[in-house]
Amino acid sequence: MLLANQVALVRLLLQLCITNVHALLSALLVRMTVWMGVRPGPGPGQSQLTARQQLRGSRAEKRRDPDRVLVTSPRSVNYHFTRQCNYKCGFCFHTAKTSFVLPIEEAKRGLLLLKQAGMEKINFSGGEPFLHQRGEFLGEMVRYCKQELQLPSVSIVSNGSMIKEKWFQSYGEYLDILAVSCDSFDEDTNRTIGRAQGRKSHIENLQKVRDWCREYKVAFKINSVINTFNVHEDMTEHITALNPVRWKVFQCLLIEGENTGGNSLREAEKFVITEQDFQDFLDRHKSIECLVPESNQKMRDSYLILDEYMRFLDCRAGRKDPSKSILDVGVQEAIQFSGFDEKMFLKRGGKYVWSKADMKLEW
Ligand SMILES: C[S@@+](CC[C@H](N)C(=O)[O-])C[C@H]1O[C@@H](n2cnc3c(N)ncnc32)[C@H](O)[C@@H]1O
Ligand code: SF4
């Protein structure tokens, strides 16, 4: 009798041990998943597509374009969280068609879903990203992505006109790259394009932001749209003096419903240049090593773009066709409608050293 009780007691103790070890191991596994950035299965709000549905979708997609690489991982994402802007660039292809901005907690939920799906780089764009809540909304997303989601790269594209030094003091440490758009080093040309507000000088502003980037250790980039008004300019001297880590040179692109066609807010036809004119501009600036050219074709399908509702925008047909929101159907389902071509993304040099910790910068 005594022996039977002792055996039962030992069995009970053993069982308790096993349960605890199991719980401990499970907790450890969850932590490791987060530390190592391993993707967990679909969470609440994420797609529950069966493997067969996913396979069927990818086969149909392959039939349409056999060379197409299907992505399931949104490695680098551009989130245009607002369409509002203080400038009026005549060629703008992301115009103020709505004034909607997600509440910050919903935006963060979407960013977490993207991180869980494999996002490594986020770029905040617009509209003008520093306009909403005077940059505080943007700052909180930048901090969240770097500090809490620990993304290797957090960047912004801005017209630069609304950035204050205080923003760098609060959020500069969380930001890897700041790109400021500048299409001309002639103030009149900037005004003609619409890249101006009132009497303020866009070029003086650009210089001020460049200096803050140096002071607050943020990598500085420049974006320029080549169009009929600046196509003959030689920007070599100015770009060399500003010394950006990257100078992205875009060929002006038309997008139906944004800057061309019936219900668009801009008519950008008069800004469009030929392939040859674009090539001549590139040839004139070939001494600049950090120049990264982007023709119309490269731009159309090599970006993963999220709009203000967190819908992927497919630009392949020359307009912006939205997917469902990742907040409603999850990343895996929405991304199938993004039009993103990973081959083109790699071809345009989309994967580069994008974390400031890995850049050898002379601040
Ligand atoms: C839509 S803007 C939003 C961010 C910010 N407002 C700015 O201008 O930098 C993002 C980038 O797209 C570029 N862009 C706008 N319209 C374009 C077009 N039609 N073709 C090529 N690039 C364009 C801008 O110059 C900018 O570098
Ligand atoms: S391209 Fe010009 S108009 Fe368009 S969002 Fe940027 S600054 Fe505003």
TrEMBL record:
Residue ranges occupied by any Radical SAM core domain in the UniProt entry: 71-291
UniProt topology in membrane: Peripheral membrane protein
GO molecular function, one term: catalytic activity
Gene3D superfamilies reported for this sequence: Aldolase class I
Names of required cofactors: [4Fe-4S] cluster
Principal location listed in the UniProt entry: endoplasmic reticulum
Compartments, record wording: Endoplasmic reticulum membrane
Family of this protein: Belongs to the radical SAM superfamily. RSAD2 family.
GO biological-process terms attached to the record: defense response to virus; innate immune response; positive regulation of immune response
Protein name: S-adenosylmethionine-dependent nucleotide dehydratase RSAD2
Keywords: 4Fe-4S, Antiviral defense, Endoplasmic reticulum, Immunity, Innate immunity, Iron, Iron-sulfur, Membrane, Metal-binding, S-adenosyl-L-methionine
Cellular component GO terms, alphabetical: endoplasmic reticulum membrane; lipid droplet; mitochondrion
A matching Pfam family: Radical_SAM
